[in-house]
Sequence to fold (653 residues):
Amino acid sequence: MVEALFWPAVLGYGEAALAYASVRTSRLATWGVRLGWLAQTALLAVQAERADGFPWASWSGSLNLFVWLVVGAYLIWGCRPRYRLLGLGVMPLAAILFVVARLAGGVGDHHGAAHYGSAFLVLHVGSVLAAFAGFTLAAGLAGVYLWQEGRLKRRDAGILRLRLPPLASLERLASRTIAVSLTLLTVGLAAGLVRAHDDGGRFDALEAVTILTWLVYGSFVVTRPGGRRAAYLALGGFALVILARLALAGSHFA
Amino acid sequence: MRLSLVGVSHHVAPVELRERVALDLPAAAELARSLGEGVCLSTCNRTEIYVAGEADDAALAALERLAGRSLDGLAYRLHDDDAALHLFRVAAGLDSLVPGEGEILGQVRSAFEAVEPGPLLDHVFREALAVGKRVRSETAIGESPASVSSAAAALAAQVFGDLTGRRVLLVGAGRIGELAAANLVSRGARIAAVANRTVANAEELARRFGADAVSLDDVAGRLGDADVVVSSTSAPDQVLCAADVPTRRRRPLFFIDIAVPRDLDPAIHALDGCFLYDIDDLEAVVAETLTGRRAEAERAEQLVAEEADRFRSWHASLDVVPAIASLRARAEEIRIAELAKLRGRLSEDERRTVESVTTQILNKLLHLPTVRMKQAAVSAEGAAYVDVVRDLFGLEDER
Fold:
């Protein structure tokens, strides 16, 4: 059943990742995102129903949940015509990570019983992953900002034929997304640190990078940079998110 | 009933002729009413009279009276489907000088609403308005600016989004700058100040926009609270250097330089958060968007053709409507006559039941022939179908 739901979800995401490449098919891409996300929602629901405790406590399971959160966050804006092209950045990443999650066993039926209680995992994993999803979206917005700003600086004659969201809107949305995500990361991080302290103060590389991520985005919220600087900072923070999600997660989930 | 169109437009008639036949809305409505069932659409690019029935000769005569000369070779006459297709293209902006211009749809609506047309013109004009809306919502034909001043405003919106409340500094009190400023104002921006070498010349324009009038020497000092700068002076030298532009944190500044020679230092564009577009840049944007409009026009033509096909079916179905109405009337007449024979032999409940059953039988029996006749109406067989039905059911006398 879970396997059967994986395919429509990955097909939807894959179709969207390809269809966003052309303006003419971008409307079709939005439907791919919607249908894929619905299929993944059903997949997560089945996993939750069958699991004994929190089903996404493993690295691959959390990657599955992360993809769902990223696509869900994208859907908030991505369905608006001008924000469709944000999907060019978000959907290929979502499709690839979803496949990685499956290859690593994160979309299967069975996961071992979690070491920690569900309430803690929901708070810790849920908050951190939601924050990372928000940072991913903010990075997408920052990417679109740099693209649009570059077109304006190049005085691209075709700028009004392929219209992107205005610079001011992109900057505002990215700032708000980062502010909300940072709050979630603070909650998730605090819960994790309290539990780590109770467990004897183990501290791994993932936690260090996550704290560094928190500092980068914290400086973003405090200094409130504008324009290109803000976009570069959002992308820099996102590089740390990718590092935390893909490169360093193994030891933390072991 | 026949739909006819007589008109002159920018395609064939020079402006000297178009201005003679141009009418304001009340005069156009008056002319349309004088022709019986008609609608007169008169804009700066066209005067067209749509009539139902056989009044096209009278419509041409009316146009020739206005022109004060014969319109041979200058006026066009179209009928039925061709006239409807033409109106649909006009409403969609496809017949306009700039493809997709939006004003024409409102002009078609005004011309239509100024008179009380009969069923044929009512239907074709409602369809035309729907086609115009559909083309604008399903294609991007109307989204792109067609002039330098509207391109400038559209570019500013690419930076700021909604321009409501954005402050504009207008440098130069000339006509071109005023046009660009008016475009920004139409998008919600506010003219904060008008700067001119002679302040007295700026005052009149500033008063009209509710802005301050300042001298050119004050331009740099006014940049701090401006979002958009529009410059169009006839000054031989630069009015503003990059060094005069203050550093702005988190607030972009958009410069529009439509003066020749240029007023603004090109180095401004390299400053962080500053964007400078001169007249060549704006003209390149307009040329590109017009190319886009032409591409969108091809899609719009397809939509218009679809709607014209639908109109053709509807119009053709009008020919079979009398036969269908006669057939239904004859059937109903028979039903009522047969029911009358049962009068007094049925209780009230039984009578109601028989009424209901016979009505349903009649409707079901006539449904398919009605649909088939309407379908056949759009083909060459339409007239034959009508004749056969009249013959089979003895409807000859009701022709």
In short: Chain B is about 55% helix and 15% strand. The longest strand of chain B covers residues 3-9.
